[in-house]
């Protein structure tokens, strides 16, 4: 069975039911010691939204694929791309808008082979419905990390929403400071991913967080994607197919079983808040499953539309081709 047909079968089975029992005795991670060793980087740190890789690890999906996977916290899309491109990591996750922007300005030999999020989770977060419609963004101050996906995409979102992006001021801030800046009222809003809503509400002492998801106005945007080096894709396509299948299986299970996934995350990061982690996965579920049955899939036509949209923001020094960015026959139904 080809990789893409295997993936479709895995997603269908995952969405219906899983009969694998909970972990007990020796872990799947321990049992994988005889497999091919590979390294995977999370998108950024260790949050509930990244716990699907630990599900794939602990449920034995990687072991079944003959892989011994070491998971390391990533530090953002560009760093993940550079580490994979230089051979210091085998796989990782990064925001596909960030991948396009980076490749346009600084070509790195990586390729996307799956979409973790069928819709972008990027957006604007405010407290207590202060900004509950795009029209209320005019004249506001928004904190976000310099060069973030939220900041890069914002002009396209603002244009699609019918507002002037020049009426909004972005304040460069460290990612770690964003929840506190919002909670303290130091800014009107912050750039944030939809899955980060539970963490923001915890930082704000239980105040409600209102999200303006970019996907509401820009439905063609993917969110995070699974990345691999161009060299590995060329030299070991079978491994790439097996890794992708196992990871997507863990992804679907995680969003269908958020509480259990949070528990598995806790095994690998004792500082994780299980309640927040489970809530993040619940928020992430519709972004992963899309319109149903499409988890993991990556489409060339949509990637081409993303490139065109981002080129229209004026942030790209060149326009990369879709084939320079991804492989579309690993996960396409």
Automatic annotation (TrEMBL):
PROSITE patterns associated with the record: PROKAR_LIPOPROTEIN
Range of residues in the leader sequence: 1-22
Gene Ontology biological-process annotations: thiamine biosynthetic process
Annotated Gene3D superfamilies: Periplasmic binding protein-like II
Domain SsuA/THI5-like: 53-261
Keywords: Signal
Protein name, entry field: SsuA/THI5-like domain-containing protein
Species whose genome carries this gene: Micromonospora rosaria
Lineage: Bacteria, Bacillati, Actinomycetota, Actinomycetes, Micromonosporales
